[in-house]
Design goal:
The protein is α/β, with parallel strands linked by helices. The chain has helices spanning about 10-25, 30-35, 40-50, 75-80, 85-95, 110-115, 130-140, 170-180, 205-215, 255-265, and strands spanning about 25, 55-60, 60-65, 100-105, 125-130, 155-160, 160-165, 170, 185-190, 190-195, 200, 220-225, 235-240, 245-250, 265-270, 275-280.
Length: about 280
């Protein structure tokens, strides 16, 4: 950990979270020494992480939150987590969508943020299993005076299916709709990503729908903030070598970035102001 007392709060909290996950817990007095900040500052940081559901405060420190693998948070709950990181990721990922291309967006709060960044990309065909994502395009692109869609507006295809707590449409109806389609790029949100389990979700039906989305795509781009690394959902649906690029944020520590680069074919780390670092892994 850094001893720089001028670290931004977001950077400090990312370092604390990384330490909690790596060691299985931290103590306040250890953090004050390592970060060279006051006891009160550390406690405020732990309070903020606890409010986000990322750590559990215990006497004298904090430990990781151990969620059941089958627990699926709702869309509203997830939308409050790492909003700045998701915006950075969305800006970087949007640059990968070419005008006139056919793209797919899965359900999730990061793909929802991405949808808003894609509004200015002309002539997209967008396939999604997310009502929230579809609403972004429909609300922003009203028809012109004649009733026809304005020039350059995206064509949006909503798959149908059974709605999950995170507002994704899944199941046989969604799977059949996706099976006959072909995308230039799939932007895929995930619940968890790890070396051992690959990409995972707490929802069994969503796992199958995500597999169908990946089979229909020429290129798979996973959009996931740093808190998803090491998280494990009930059902794995893809290995890391099936991903072409992971777009994540600068909240990932140097150690986590190195691990990501080692196991993923491509890695993009998005930062403040839309700056991007790119690297190619060895996978």
């Amino acid at each position: 950990m850094s001893d720089n007392q001028n670290l931004l709060a977001e950077q400090r909290r990312a370092l604390i979270l990384d330490e909690v996950r790596r060691r299985g817990g931290v103590r306040v007095n250890e953090l004050t020494r390592r970060l060279n900040v006051s006891d009160m500052t550390v406690r405020r940081d732990l309070d903020a992480l606890a409010r986000q559901g990322l750590v559990e405060k215990v006497h004298g420190g904090a430990v990781p939150v151990a969620e059941p693998a089958g627990h699926e948070p709702g869309f509203e709950a997830k939308s409050t987590l790492e909003p700045g990181a998701k915006e950075d990721i969305a800006r970087a990922a949007a640059a990968m969508a070419s005008p006139g291309s056919a793209i797919a967006l899965s359900g999730g709060t990061t793909t929802y943020a991405l949808a808003q960044q894609l509004l200015d990309v002309p002539d997209l065909t967008v396939v999604t299993n997310s009502v929230r994502v579809a609403d972004v395009f429909h609300a922003a692109q009203p028809p012109g005076p004649s009733g026809a869609a304005r020039p350059g507006a995206a064509t949006v295809v909503l798959t149908g299916g059974v709605r999950t707590p995170s507002d994704a449409l899944v199941g046989p109806v969604a799977d059949r709709a996706i099976a006959s389609l072909h995308f230039d790029v799939l932007f895929l949100g995930v619940h968890g990503i790890s070396v051992e389990a690959g990409l995972s979700t707490p929802n069994l039906a969503e796992a199958e729908t995500n597999r169908r989305l990946m089979r229909s795509a020429r290129r798979v781009v996973v959009v996931a903030d740093h808190t998803k690394w090491g998280t494990l959902g009930l059902s794995s649906f893809a290995n890391l070598d099936e991903v072409d690029t992971l777009v994540t944020d600068r909240g990932a520590s140097a150690r986590i970035r190195a691990e990501m680069s080692e196991h993923l074919p491509g890695l993009v780390v998005a930062g403040p102001g839309g700056s991007v670092e790119e690297s190619e892994g060895d996978a």
